[in-house]
Specification:
The complex is a heterodimer of chains A (about 290) and B (about 110). Chain A is mostly helical. Helices cover about 70% and strands about 5% of the residues of chain A. Chain A has a three-stranded mixed β-sheet. In chain A, a hairpin with a 2-residue loop joins β1 and β2. With about 110 residues, chain B is α+β, with helices and mostly antiparallel strands. Helix content of chain B is about 60%, strand content about 15%. Chain B contains four helices and three strands; from the N terminus they run αβααββα. In chain B, β2 and β3 form a beta hairpin. In chain B, α1 runs antiparallel to α4. Chain B is globular. The chains are: A mainly alpha (about 290), B alpha+beta (about 110). The interface between A and B is medium-sized, with 25 and 18 residues.
């Protein structure tokens, strides 16, 4: 059983298995990259997409409407690799590989600044992130401002060619990037560290659940959380402590709100969304 | 389609260099769709895919050698119907003549 992706080729919808979609996207990304110097790039790519759509039709019938990976591979083999006209020149240009700082979408956590920096310097993203976090702590949040500036001023790599520039190495297809990210994730998932952590979390959860149930039982039988008989004082005590916890959380969020612009923005936008939700709800109810 | 022996590899650039001439020749016969060109070439040494042909056609159009019209088709979206321009006919003529000259030269080089 495979996930299916629906795409638009020349104005018609096609359904592809996920692997087939990745293959096709890599082909088109490579085409765009090869045609980067071609003034008619958009038109050619559009025509190519339409031709691919036409060839895909041959694999469809009333009883089959999803294309598999091997079918897409056959279609693309028929299409042949995209060859740029005057390709010699652009190939020569690509040799020294221009290197540019871009934000990278693949493997990003926030806005892809760290992934872009890692690609630019050819180092591990984890290292870049660590440095960023350390800087944020040292500067008391001031570094976040630098991050936001970076988001504003560093463009995001959108085409295959730009992604290749971000790495500065030989052309990289979108597929390579996806594979790389997947590989990293798989490695992480299979690492001992992750497994032990998961194990410990499960253990911890079980323990918490157990304790909670024990407390509930005690509570229901008229004892407070420390096992003493329930009284007005113990109830008050519990109430005060829970209020204290609430105040601490609110205070913490308040501090973050005023010192981290990112949190500020997030909460403000959350408020706007909430207001809109309430507004539309009230409108729907008043109808 | 893509021969891989070293001897064959030497022929690939020759074919590549002559593909433009071959395409011009196909279009010179009659007005054609891109699919017609591919089909005509498919049985020859110049067999190519859309990946090669489309960028080439777009370059030829920019150079003013071919032109296209949109043609409604009964099944599917409108398609491009290609024809040679005057400049295209001249280019075809010139290139064909030059190819013959080259052929002659090479044939006679051992004399």
């Amino acid at each position: 059983m495979n996930k299916v992706v629906t795409i638009n080729l020349g104005g018609n919808a096609y359904q592809l298995e996920e692997g087939a979609y990745d293959t096709l996207r890599a082909y088109l990304a490579e085409a765009e990259q090869k045609l980067a110097d071609d003034p008619d790039k958009e038109e050619i790519v559009k025509d190519l997409e339409q031709a691919i759509g036409g060839k895909c039709n041959a694999y469809m019938s009333a009883y089959k409407n999803v294309l598999t990976q091997s079918e897409i591979e056959a279609v693309l083999a028929e299409m042949g690799p995209v060859e740029a006209e005057g390709g010699e020149r652009s190939a020569a240009n690509a040799a020294p590989a221009p290197k540019r700082l871009y934000r990278l979408h693949e493997g990003r956590v926030l806005f892809g600044v760290c992934t872009g920096l890692a690609a630019y310097f050819g180092i591990d993203v984890a290292l870049v992130r660590l440095v960023c976090i350390v800087l944020t702590v040292i500067t008391g949040g001031g570094f976040v401002l630098a991050y936001i500036l970076a988001v504003i001023f560093i463009p995001e790599a959108e085409t295959g060619a730009q992604k290749a520039e971000a790495f500065g190495s030989m052309p990289i297809t979108a597929q390579d990037l996806v594979d790389k990210a997947k590989e990293g994730f798989d490695q992480f998932k299979n690492s001992d560290q992750w497994r032990t952590w998961k194990q410990e979390m499960r253990e911890q959860r079980r323990q918490w659940k157990h304790e909670y149930r024990a407390h509930r039982r005690m509570h229901n039988h008229g004892y407070d959380w420390q096992g003493r008989p329930r009284s007005f004082l113990s109830e008050l005590n519990e109430f005060v402590w829970s209020m204290f916890g609430l105040v601490v959380i609110v205070f913490f969020v308040w501090i973050l709100y005023h010192h981290l612009p990112l949190v500020h923005q997030f909460l403000d936008s959350a408020k706007v969304i909430w207001d809109n939700f309430i507004y539309s709800l009230s409108k729907a109810l008043s109808k | 389609m893509t021969p891989s022996t070293p001897q064959e590899d030497k022929l690939a650039p020759l074919r590549k260099g002559l593909l433009e001439l071959a395409v011009l020749r196909v279009i010179s016969g009659r007005e054609v769709y891109a699919a017609d060109i591919l089909e005509r070439l498919s049985a020859t040494q110049f067999k190519s895919g859309e990946g090669t042909l489309y960028p080439l056609l777009s370059k030829l159009r920019r150079e003013g050698l071919v032109a296209y019209e949109w043609e409604e088709s009964a099944a599917g979206p409108p398609r491009k119907y290609y024809s040679l321009t005057e400049a295209g006919k001249e280019a075809l003529e010139r290139q064909s003549r030059y190819l013959k000259e080259l052929q002659n030269t090479i044939t006679n080089l051992n004399k």
